[in-house]
Design brief:
The complex is a heterodimer of chains A (about 575) and B (about 280). Chain A has helices at about 55-60, 85-90, 105, 115-125, 130-145, 150-155, 160-175, 190-210, 220-225, 245-250, 255-260, 355-360, 385-390, 410-420, 425-440, 455-470, 485-505, 515-520, 550-555; strands spanning about 10-20, 25-40, 40-45, 70-75, 80, 95-100, 180-185, 210-215, 230-235, 235-245, 310-320, 325-340, 340-345, 370-375, 375, 395, 475-480, 505-510, 525-530, 530-540. In chain A, the strands form four sheets. In chain A, strands 6-7-8-3-9-10 form a six-stranded mixed β-sheet, sandwiched between helices. A six-stranded mixed β-sheet of chain A has the order 16-17-18-13-19-20, with helices on both faces. In chain A, strands 2-1-4-5 form a four-stranded antiparallel β-sheet, covered by helices on one side. Chain A is globular. Chain A is built from 19 helices and 20 strands. Chain A is an alpha/beta fold and about 575 residues long. Helices cover about 35% and strands about 25% of the residues of chain A. By secondary structure, chain B is mainly alpha-helical. Chain B has helices spanning about 1-10, 15-35, 65-105, 105-120, 125-135, 140-165, 170-175, 180-215, 230-235, 245-280. In chain B, helix 3 packs antiparallel against helix 8 (about 180-215) and helix 3 (about 65-105) packs parallel to helix 10. The chains are: A alpha/beta (about 575), B mainly alpha (about 280). The interface of A and B includes residues 401, 403, 453 and 464 of A.
């Protein structure tokens, strides 16, 4: 990759500090950061939420806002970015320094067609005529491999899929032939298969145009796949920098080692270690302890436990009807979950996996088929179900911010189910039990009095799990429960779920799109494609040669396979990656 | 968070003036007459249609009654009636709106179309219809205003509920076993009450206007009850001879409406701020 890189320095950052001045509160987002980026090079900026990686991206674009104070040196092609006037910025930004952000929907104006927005930039910066701008915009839409670029040109943002939109945004950025491109989590929120296509495209365009890129991401796998060099950040400081393959395969610094160790291995089950042992939100310093040797766990039981299924889904069907049109969300979905078993339900957005979860919980009413819990058919709606049934079936949602009522303390949230189901007869008794619940998800008792906004994402997710445990359920549905979390936090939550499964015989229906997570937690896997099940079997079966083509495509799209090769002759079944 | 934001950003002059005026107005209207032993119906023969003097600060009317005294006493019925009607009207509307927004489907459609039908009538015409059907008097006014306010409050509540109802904590509450009533009152209501408060504030000032309008038209409270609308209607006949008769009741209406609106505006801004913070938090 590095042969494309020349020695010309495009961006140099020298002892950069960024402080957000919010009146009484001063937040040091970036401290003493230095880096340089050459033409044609892709530098990955890696870190967890709050590490300051995005702030750096904003600073390079002059987008920090009035509260952001910058110190140190920031030069683009030798020009001091910190002393530019607004007029100078407007000639630079978008034109010579481009940007691609997460959520392409917000990057485009919904009132103009996609093509017009690309052409607009061309006319403004290059002074092209309408016709010439249109022609070149269409050409760029073709270069990002959008089908029928002339027709896409006329489409409005809402008429394109997420992946198509991001390609359009990338076309818009490249059309102005920038020398430097800031990419801030450009594939986060996209499906894995779409992500793989976008990453290919970015590599391709880099080779063609020789642009330098600052690629901001929390996903080490993605960074390993696309970047030449990588810079790891933690709490605003640089932890480690070097060749991407080297840093991520043999990290020198303990923090990076722990970060790498927290990536769920696609091939083998292993233990997780907390990266920041206690308080994620506290002022913990960078760990100096390297992680202990990764412990590999025996592979998941491929043999089904002999017990009767606790959850039996039969020919489930759900059709969304709006005036005039009908969308089949899921069709003929049948599978079961046995006591103490963890079944992964895998699929991309629109596959119908969340619909299945909602039908199981009674949050949506299926149009056909049945959900049997412990042998008895469940009424369709959650409020039609007897309390005794509702107690045994719980859910943990994806978004930890939305799943807790912001107006109630953690304690109030946890006491409710205890009182409703008669596990506690008085508020005092419920309080005692709720504190035990907090302890069971490794949260301190003091959290009882806290409000959700005082908690970090991982902590909120633990509270959500504690709430689900409060009713002593037999089955917990986890709907993308770890997808929104940092990789380190994700690991500890997965660990917690495994422990609960082992200790309490809890069954899980684990809905996810991440095959690494599936490997870590699931005994069996069910894969959904466009509302139907396309593959079902033990986790090992996903990796077999005769798996469904879609399963193979999913597997091929998993980023970061350069990091860990499948173990030779180990405990897992052998397979060949279809790349 | 919420308490602090009140202080940090709440150095709003509007709130200070509006809130102060409301308190001042309520205190004078409810306390002064009994403390000072004011009688709104006492007539003095020697001071008929007297301009403002030291004895009668706002002058007297055609029967020699003190305008200030009548304005104060009249404020009692108007403000009490307006507050009660607003509470009941917005409260009922909130209930309907929460039910419609939470349940959705046919019930939602039914309730909202019913509301549309009521809202299709201009509010004053609707009020007059009620008064004709039920007769005049405070109870009729109350009913009329509730009927005017409930559909609007229901529609606003429903739209806010729709933003909340699909949040995951509402689903989670159902899953852990909360009844539908608990979901509505324990999960949804605490997240929407600030919006209801703003609605109530704006409606309260409107209620004052409706009551006064009905009084002015002669179908609200009946003479000799001192009522702001009624007083203005009486004053209208003497507007050239004794214009001061207007100032008391008209000033009271303007003052109460403006001060309540100032508080309402502040609350609206405060909620907007809170929502933005909730979104941008962490």
């Amino acid at each position: 990759m590095s042969e494309a890189a020349t020695t010309e320095t495009v961006l140099s950052v020298d002892g950069l500090g960024i402080t957000y001045d919010l009146g009484a509160l001063k937040i040091k987002a970036v401290q003493d950061l230095s880096l340089s980026l050459r033409a044609g090079e892709i530098l990955g900026l890696v870190g967890e939420s709050g590490s300051g990686k995005s702030s750096l991206g904003y600073a390079v674009l002059g987008h920090l806002g009035s509260a952001g104070k910058v110190s140190g040196g920031l030069r683009f092609r030798g020009e001091d970015l910190l002393s530019l006037s607004a007029a100078q910025w407007s000639r630079l930004r978008g034109r010579r320094i481009g940007m691609v952000y997460q959520e392409p929907q917000t990057a485009l104006n919904p009132a103009y067609s996609v093509g017009e927005q690309i052409a607009e930039g061309l006319r403004h910066h290059f002074g092209l005529s309408r016709a010439a701008a249109r022609e070149r915009a269409v050409d760029w839409l073709r270069q990002v491999h959008l089908p029928e670029p002339e027709r896409i040109y006329e489409r409005y943002p809402h008429q394109l899929s997420g992946g198509q939109l991001q390609r359009a945004v990338i076309a818009m950025a490249f059309a102005l032939e920038p020398e430097l491109l800031i990419m801030d989590e450009p594939t986060t929120g996209l499906d894995v298969t779409t992500q793989a296509v976008i990453l290919d495209l970015v590599r391709d365009l880099r080779a063609k145009t020789g642009v330098a890129m600052l690629y901001v991401s929390h996903d080490l796998g993605v960074v390993a796949d696309i970047c030449d060099r990588v810079l790891v950040m933690y709490r605003g400081r640089m932890v480690e920098e070097g060749e991407a393959a080297e840093v991520l395969r043999q990290p020198r610094e303990p923090y990076t080692q722990r970060l790498v160790a927290a990536i769920p291995d696609l091939y083998r089950r292993h233990s997780f270690e907390p990266i920041r042992p206690e308080a994620e939100a506290g002022g913990a310093e960078i760990l100096v302890e390297p992680p202990s040797e990764r412990r590999y766990l025996p592979p998941a039981a491929t043999e089904r436990p002999a017990s009767a299924p606790i959850l039996d889904i039969r020919e489930l069907q759900r059709v969304y009807r709006t005036r005039g049109s009908a969308t089949v969300a899921c069709k003929d979905v049948s599978f079961d979950v046995r006591r103490g078993e963890c079944v992964a339900l895998i699929g991309e957005s629109g596959s119908g996996k969340s619909t299945v979860a909602k039908c199981v919980l009674g949050l949506e009413k299926p149009d056909g088929g049945a959900v049997l819990f412990d042998g008895t058919p469940c009424p369709k709606g959650v409020h039609d179900r007897p309390l005794s049934l509702r107690r045994r079936l719980q859910i943990v949602f994806q978004n930890p911010d939305g799943s807790l009522n912001g107006r109630r303390t953690v304690g109030e949230t946890l006491c409710r189910p205890l009182l409703i189901h008669g596990r506690a007869r008085s508020a005092a008794e419920a309080g005692v039990l709720a504190r035990e619940l907090l302890a069971s998800v490794d949260l301190p008792h003091a959290f009882f009095e806290r409000y959700p906004h005082e908690l970090s994402g991982g902590q909120k997710q633990r509270v959500a799990i504690a709430r689900a445990l409060a009713t002593e359920p037999d089955l917990i549905v986890c709907d993308e429960a770890v997808s929104a979390l940092d990789v380190s936090v994700q690991g500890t939550i997965l660990d917690l779920c495994r422990r609960l499964q082992a200790e309490r015989g809890l069954a899980f229906l684990f809905i996810t799109h991440d095959l690494g997570v599936v490997r870590q937690i699931a005994d069996r896997a069910v894969v959904m494609l466009k509302g139907e099940i396309c593959h079902a079997g033990g986790v090992e079966s996903l990796f077999e040669d005769d798996a469904h083509p879609y399963v193979k495509a999913l597997l091929a799209a998993v980023p970061g396979k350069t990091l860990d090769a499948p173990p030779q002759g180990g405990t897992t079944a052998q397979f060949v990656l279809s790349e | 968070m919420t308490k602090r934001s009140f202080l940090l950003h709440g150095t709003d002059l509007g709130l200070l003036i509006g809130g102060g005026l409301i308190i001042l107005l309520a205190a004078t209207v409810f306390l002064a007459p009994s403390v000072l032993g004011i009688d709104g119906e006492a007539m003095s023969i020697d001071a008929i249609l007297s301009p403002p003097t030291a004895d009668h600060w706002l002058g007297t009317d055609q029967l020699g009654r003190d305008i200030l005294a009548r304005t104060l006493i009249g404020g009692r019925s108007t403000l009490t009636l307006a507050a009660t009607a607003t509470l009941l009207g917005v409260g009922l509307g909130a209930l309907i709106g929460m039910l419609a927004g939470y349940k959705g489907g046919l019930l939602d459609e039914l309730l909202m179309r019913l509301g549309d039908a009521v809202m299709a009538l201009p509010s004053l015409i609707l009020a007059m219809l009620v008064m004709v059907a039920v007769g005049s008097g405070p109870a009729a006014i109350l009913m009329a205003i509730i009927l005017i306010f409930a559909p609007r409050a229901a529609r606003i509540t429903r739209s806010v509920v729709l933003n909340v109802v699909n949040l995951e904590f509402v689903s989670a509450a159902s899953v852990i076993g909360e009844s539908q009533a608990s979901v509505i009152f324990r999960e949804i209501l605490p997240n929407i009450w600030p919006n209801l408060l703003v609605e109530a504030c704006l409606r309260f000032s409107y209620a004052i206007l409706i009551i006064s309008a009905l009084g002015y038209l002669g179908i609200g409270l009946q003479p000799p009850t001192p009522d702001w609308g009624l007083m203005i209607s009486e004053a209208a006949s003497y507007v050239t001879a004794a214009p001061w008769m207007l100032f008391g009741p008209a000033g009271a209406i303007v003052l109460s409406v403006v001060s309540v609106n100032l508080v309402g505006d502040f609350l609206q801004e405060w909620i907007g701020l809170r929502m933005r913070r909730a979104v941008s938090h962490v």
